[in-house]
Amino acid sequence: MRKRGQRRLAADRAAYSVEAEWTEADLALLEELTRAEALLPQNAPRALLSIRLSVLTDDTTSPVRQELDLRILARERGSRVVGVASDLNVSATKVPPWKRKELGEWLNNRSPEFDELLFWKLDRFVRRLSDLSTMIEWSLKRGKNLVSKNDSLDLTTTAGKIMVTIIGGIAEIEAANTSTRVASLWDYAKSQEDWIIGKPAYGYVTDEDDTGKVVLVIDPEAAKALHWARRMALRGRSAGFMVRCLKRSGLMTQGLTVATLHRRLRNPALLGYRVEEDKNGGQRRSKPLLGKDGRPIKVAPPLFTEEKFETLGAALDKRRKSQPPRRVGGATQFLGVLLCADCKTNMTVQITNNTHGTYQYLRCRNCKSGGLGAPNPERVYERLVQDVLKVLGDFPVQVRQYAEGAEARKEIKRLQETIALYMKDLEPGGRYTKTRFTKEQAEATLDKLISELEAINPETAKDRWVNVHGGKTFREHWQEGGMEAMSADLYRVGIRCEVTRTKVPKVRAPKVHLRLLIPKDVRERLVIREDDFAQ
């Protein structure tokens, strides 16, 4: 008999449906578990079930079986299931829990709704020690519990607490060792003539020699494109012309830009040298690394001779425009916020140099010739700032914070127990009914306790997100942070500004009109949400 393969056929995996996997027996068990759950007290712990599967095989536990097993575990623990975060076709190695579609939504935005996170097995939850350490740290901070059905992980047990300490220590050591190893490897690789690690410069690819050692060799297609570009540069053709031809021919990708082509043509790696990035002057350039003898380290056969490389550089210099120093944040302010009203693409600053001076224009990408150029971008920025401040400047800066209800729940429980005690002792024959004085005093105390209990807002007894006023308005916030802070907030919130350019007869500069597009829920979007899992 033909042996059955370990993995299902691709067609079977593609057609897999969780709903279709539920058998009548499974549904009957689910109904039984649901009925048992309905009998739990109101204050029963709330459990979130985490189900993950990268690839469904004959050896893996199906999502249905994982869910039923976890519901049984929840029943044994006396917990109420409040949700199921099912992430299928997701790799635990590549995607940590907080970045998964369903589980990530619960962890980042719905954490007040559950008390413990149940998963079938540790490798169904995470596969990286650092991710487990992060989740344990988050759970302790938020007062949550992590429970594995088939592993000894429970943060409330002694064994679980010991494991937390061990895992945290190992994760810190591993992170420090990894950082040291990577830095050491790069420092070592930079000083060697052999190719050890890194991405080859454009024009080269990695290959193996006869001994199996990794070496750099010339990429024929890239070499063809570079040599053609050199010939065009010597003929005085512009980089823009070369970019259009190279993209049309398919020798370089459609994402090629003039700046990228210049970087490739000026890269000393074309001489076979090992290089590193040099950001001096605000431009991305590469410089050769020198060996112990003071000479450039050669790691590959040269694609250009030194003479050809120098003549290429001289030809590019002849057509080079005298551009002002590159701004740290880019030439365009409010990038991604300012949009062309016609083609809906980003407005960017284009710099033009001629004999009369240097001029800046705001242009779009898809309109013919970039549309009518809007001169003086700074004036457009100023008008945008004024419009934004007029609408949003007085809004308070609020930060979303996690508020725990444990203290309020503890106080409510104390008051309820005390009230019950006083009510019992005020019954006929009780300790406070023996004299009129003790009865009046007990009744007064009881009224006070009841008033204190009624004064507690039930919402404060729940774990919840609250928006805390930062003590200043967005006007003050943006005055401190400048245009960069305003641009970042507008982009984050989803506020856009359409720019309309209208031709004016006998006037060179067009008339510019701005139209703010503000979402209806802008107040909620403006709330700053701190990321618990930020690296």
TrEMBL record:
Keywords: DNA recombination, DNA-binding. SMART domains: Resolvase. Residues 201-322 form the Recombinase domain. InterPro entries: DNA_bind_recomb_sf (IPR038109), DNA_bind_recombinase_dom (IPR011109), Resolv_N (IPR006119), Resolvase-like_N_sf (IPR036162), SSR_resolvase (IPR050639), Zn_ribbon_recom_dom (IPR025827). Pfam families: Recombinase, Resolvase, Zn_ribbon_recom. CDD domains: Ser_Recombinase (cd00338). The keyword Acyltransferase does not apply. SUPFAM superfamilies: Resolvase-like. PANTHER family: DNA-INVERTASE FROM LAMBDOID PROPHAGE (PTHR30461), SERINE RECOMBINASE PINE-RELATED (PTHR30461:SF2). This is Integrase. It comes from Streptomyces lividans TK24.
